[in-house]
Design goal:
This protein is α/β, with parallel strands linked by helices and 228 residues long. It is built from 6 helices and 7 strands; from the N terminus they run βαβαβαβαβαβαβ.
């Protein structure tokens, strides 16, 4: 049975991906800082995980032991309200908090689980980023902590792809589009906003369609390659 670790699994895209991978017969370690009864009922292995805490990451590594890991989905992310992430209001504590979750978290979790990934036949790492992290596509400004943390995640993910290519690990950077999650409730009324189940289904199709030739690419859930 293939094995997956999914962060941010308690709600939103992470929760929807957990359901999809369970339906495709994966053994899923569903990780989040909070575990709800609904997540516990899915048939996954729910695990409390704070990606910003190295003791918590080490605990997950201990739970996995030497289990092979076929798929790692780094989904967990945070975003401050727009009013707190503007040029006039951004603080160093908000920057550290956002980078710790959105950029450093995926890097250090991947590092910790690398032996498990390398034990799999066709390991894959999927880092959920955002088009907001594209420097070339930035025409709206603002979102200083969130935008820069996702740009950092993109750079980290590209380096991962380069470093892990010879080891046979595929690394893909994913933009889910505008999704109706708790991350940004202000976007729910936008015409382009979709439910997490829709975004997760399309993201997973993109993931399954990309081989090593697609490693290190920054992709929209439609499959379109995005600019850095």
């Amino acid at each position: 049975m293939p094995t997956a670790v999914i962060t941010g699994a308690n709600s939103g895209i992470g929760n929807a991906l957990t359901k999809i991978l369970i339906s495709e017969k994966y053994e899923v370690y569903a990780c989040d800082i909070n575990i709800s009864p609904s997540l516990e009922s899915l048939g996954a292995r729910p695990i409390i995980l704070d990606v910003t805490n190295q003791s918590s990451v080490a605990s997950l590594k201990g739970r996995l032991g030497d289990t092979h890991l076929d798929v790692l989905f780094n989904v967990a992310g945070i975003m401050s309200p727009k009013s707190e992430d503007a040029l006039e209001t951004i603080t160093s504590s908000a920057l550290v908090r956002t980078f710790s979750t959105n950029a450093f978290g995926p890097l250090l979790l991947t590092q910790a689980l690398l032996p498990n990934l390398l034990a799999a036949q066709s390991p894959r790492v999927y880092n959920v980023s955002s088009r907001v992290g594209s420097i070339a596509d930035n025409s709206s400004g603002g979102a200083y902590a969130y935008r820069s943390s996702k740009a950092a995640l993109n750079a980290i993910s590209k380096s991962m792809a380069v470093d892990l290519k010879a080891k046979g690990v595929i690394v893909l950077i994913l933009h889910p589009g505008i999704v109706k999650t708790r991350l940004d409730p202000t976007s729910h009324e936008l015409e382009a906003a979709v439910m997490p189940e829709v975004a997760a289904k399309e993201l997973w199709e993109v993931c399954k369609s990309k081989g090593m030739e697609g490693s290190g690419r920054f992709c929209h859930r439609t499959g379109e390659e995005l600019p850095w």
